[in-house]
Amino acid sequence: MAEKSPKRLKLEESLRDDPSDPFLRYGLAMQCLREGDADEGRERLKALVADRPDEVAAYQQLGQSYAESEEFAEASEWLRAGIARARATGDAHAAAEMEGLLESLD
Q1: What is the C-alpha to C-alpha distance for residues 56 and 18, in angstroms, rounded to an integer?
Q2: Do 31 and 15 touch, CB atoms closer than 8 A?
Q3: How far apart are CA 41 and CA 26, in angstroms?
Q4: Closest Cα to residue 86, out of 100, 74, 73?
Q5: Beta-carbon neighbour count of residue 69 at 10 Å?
Q6: Which of 55, 69, 70, 77 is deepest in the core (most CB within 10 A)?
Q7: 11-24 in b/e burial notation, b at 16+ Cβ within 10 A?
Q8: What CATH architecture does domain 6-105 belong to?
Q9: Torsion of CA 87, 47, 72, 66, to 10 degrees
């Protein structure tokens, strides 16, 4: 893996100070994905979902990440779970976005 960016290092440092902060956890996961570290980014998103199941954006990003690497079964699984969670929490916008992505996989 390439050297970590200053932004990623700062997020990691901030997360050490407050490891339960969902915003920091999501931000670090997204930074990992942006830097091409899909495995770590996905693991961080999965851990966030396990701890905070209503973090709907994490499902969407997991689905998108898997879709981008053409792992369509995994993408579909995460998107379907995200759609259900988004509907349960009343987030119609996120549900619609994930439904659109799911349809594009077919």
Answers
A1: 21
A2: no
A3: 9
A4: 100
A5: 12
A6: 55
A7: beeebeeeeeeeeb
A8: Alpha Horseshoe (1.25)
A9: 110
Distance of CA 41 to the CA centre of its chain: 7
**Six-digit token pair at 101?**
């992505």
d(CA 15, CA 64) in angstroms, rounded, equals 24
Per-residue pLDDT of the chain (106 residues; tens, 9 = 90+): 568 899 999 999 999 999 999 999 999 999 999 999 999 999 999 999 999 999 999 999 999 999 999 999 999 999 999 999 999 999 999 999 999 999 999 7
pTM: 0.93
Structure tokens belonging to residue 18: 């407050």
Identify the sign of the CA torsion 10, 14, 16, 17: positive
